[in-house]
Design a protein that fits this description.
Heat Shock Protein 90; alpha+beta; two-stranded antiparallel sheet; elongated; five-stranded mixed β-sheet; single chain
Amino acid sequence: MCKPRQIPRALRDAALTAAVLAAAVGLCALLAHFAEGDTYVGFLFVLAVAFISRWTEGYLWGIFSSFFGVVCVNYVFTYPYWEFNFTMTGYPLTFVTLLAVASMVSAMTTQIKRQERERLETEREAIRADLLRAMSHDIRTPLTSIVGNTAAVLEDQGTLSAEQKRSLLEDVNEDAQWLIRMVENILSITRVRGAGVLNTEAEVAEEVMGVAARKFAKRFPETRISVEAPDEVLLVPMDATLIEQVILNLMENAVIHGGATELALRIVRDGDAARFSVSDNGRGIPAEKLVTLFDATSPAVQRGGCDGKKNMGIGLSVCRTVVKAHGGAMSAENRAEGGAELRFTLPLKQIKEETGDETQG
């Protein structure tokens, strides 16, 4: 679907400044007919300057609104009206107060935004380091297995039967398929980290989940899959490729490490978010592992002690990273009837990380 054009930040700041100042002027003009004196004028413009300084970028619009407020206070709303009077009592104080408010609020806002960006970057680097440490071990293990099995087949002097060779080659194929999925996860992380901002578009949630289910069915044709979606069409701002990878990782985790033979995929509207879930009929998740389930170092035995050479915790950590980059959250729990359910939510509004702006998806 077409991505809506983003309004330039400078234009949005200018429009916001104009709207707030117009509201302040209008309110002062209205109160002039009901209130005695003009002391409220200065307070209203101080409030307008504080609001503009908080919700615009940098110092420009806050300082501009300070000068505009001083001019209005002096020229429009103070006797003699529609004349400048630089000798009136309190004028220098009004000017200094408005300018100080604009400078302080703008400075605090800029500092808060900078600290938030630094915090997010530190968190990104920590996740990346955890993923790389886990991957360095997990990639080496299947590669060693592939080299050993292929060497056994190539160096065979007739001692291996056809069945034994086939078994070794099946192991090679399994390890190669796992490495492909690992590379897909690495590419997902690269896309999240690369530009710092996801290239999101409003996508039909049911279609994205359906594509993931069809891809999974080709890899695991013996697994039964059901998809449940609401009657309403849920348009969710997302990078569809990354969210497909998240759903695939959750499904693969349920089958490979949970021993599931049936999967139920669901999408529901949850307030201002869309909730995606993958339920299975597998062994469930040990209670002590639920807290660390989405950590990169979470071992494969978390789902019941399957093949420990493949750390599916990496896939789940990738899922959490991608979902968090979309402004969503992940959770997991065991089902009363058996198996587990892993869920993630995506906001129905697009969130701009750098500025805190929101635009409707």
